[in-house]
Amino acid sequence: MSDSPASGKLEVQLHALLANERGITVAAAESCTGGEIAHRITSVAGSSDYFLGSVVAYANSAKESILGVPADVLASVGAVSAETASAMVEGARRIYGADLAVASTGIAGPGGATARKPVGLVYLAVSTSDGVRVEEHHFPGDRTSVVDAAVERALQLLVEAVRDVATSKRTIENQE
């Protein structure tokens, strides 16, 4: 399979959607994916028209000081939680002034797991003006497999969110 737009790569789909929906901007906040979401998005020429940036906040201190994840959230439920993913994605939207954002936090392994939070546990969040959606995933495999699966689903979430925003935007324009 080639790397042409017909190949169905999610970053290419995202680009095609955003090229048609001028003015919609995207940002990211990444922990367990370590910048791979941003890498995939920016691998497409022209992504600077809509992708504003990404914060790789690996340490809890960065999640708190840069993205605004409340210290009490990190202390009570931890960095790998729906609450942290939600705060991270909102922080990314705020920092960049983006229309949409996506965030990842999880345990890629091989270390760092507990009985309650095993390797492969990943929380992904997407934020639009309609609110935040958080998903919990349990991706199988080694570190690379977990990261790859998390990035793939995060990009799917962005594509879905752009479609939703574009549909809402057209509905509002048609009512005016």
Can you describe this structure in just a few lines?
Helices cover 44% and strands 19% of the residues.
Describe the structure.
This protein is of the alpha/beta class and 176 residues long. It has one domain: CinA-like (Maf protein, Alpha-Beta Complex). 44% of the residues lie in helices and 19% in strands. The protein has a 5-stranded mixed sheet, sandwiched between helices. Helix 1 packs parallel to helix 6 and helix 2 packs across helix 6. The protein starts with 9 loop residues before the first helix and ends with a helix.
Secondary structure layout plus pairing:
Layout: H1 10-20, E1 26-30, H2 36-42, E2 51-56, H3 60-65, H4 71-76, H5 82-96, E3 100-106, E4 121-128, E5 131-138, H6 143-175
Main attributes?
single chain; 176 residues; alpha/beta; 5-stranded mixed β-sheet; 6 helices; globular; disordered N terminus
**How much of the residues is beta strand, in percent?**
15-25%
Structural class comes to: alpha/beta
Number of strands: 5
Q: SSE order in H/E notation?
A: HEHEHHHEEEH
